[in-house]
Amino acid sequence: MSATDHPGDALVVRRLLSASRDRVFAAWLDPASLAQWMRPGEMSSATVDGDPRVGGKFRIVMRHVGGAVEHWGEYLAIEPPARLSFTWISVHTDLLPSIVTVELVEKGTSTELTLTHRRLPAAQVEAHRKGWTDILGMLDVRLMAGDGVEPLSN
Amino acid sequence: MQDMERYRGSPLDQVYGAIADPTRRAILRVLADGDVKIGTLADRFPISFNGVSKHVKVLERAGLVARKIRGREHWLRLKPRPLRQAARWLEHYGAFWETRLDALEQFLVEQQRPPKVGRSRE
Questions:
Q1: Enclosing H/E stretch for B96
Q2: How confident is the model over A124-149, as a mean pLDDT?
Q3: Yes or no, beta carbons of B46 and A154 under 8 Å apart
């Protein structure tokens, strides 16, 4: 870990989602699904490219009226249906790799999602907390709306 | 908005219009689990109370949601009946989909049969 990392600053956001763990996990790996809900705050659209395998890279461009914010990273762990981890880089991480971990626990027919974001610049923690809170809210809407990846039955 | 009010289209137009939005589909999903106060409903969504309220009004106009006012509380209830007509229209394509899947299965079964001529499978 280099001196320019931000080891101390982590944030945790939790949300109960109205969908099975398989559906929630699939939504995080599918670029078409991610584009529907990776839109915090005033972001009006998102474009997502991804190669969901360990070592694979992704790129998310979130757009708003005034411009666009680009995010990118690399998948560190893909353990369906319980755990996913990736690096997360943008101008808001000072272009340094922060680390996002998504953990899913079954709660009856729902799923509790815990998102932990580590190594963020201290000044950016609150903005990211708000961003992830919005994103998880959007994800819940899309899951309840029937969008996302459905396993093809029979 | 006035013009929108004047011409509403058929009941089926209204139902499909109402469910052509992810937030409104999600509201119906919440109400499928039971009646909910509008404030409680709004808390679940990452948009403003007014935004949720507008979506609820569209659902009410389509006959999919009924509002009951008890004192100062507005309770919302799912009215699934109009969805039945919409579902019936889609069912036709359900049958179409099933026959296509059967055809696909048939194709895959035939592919798996050992080749008649002495050619190895790739």
A1: helix B81-112
A2: 93
A3: no
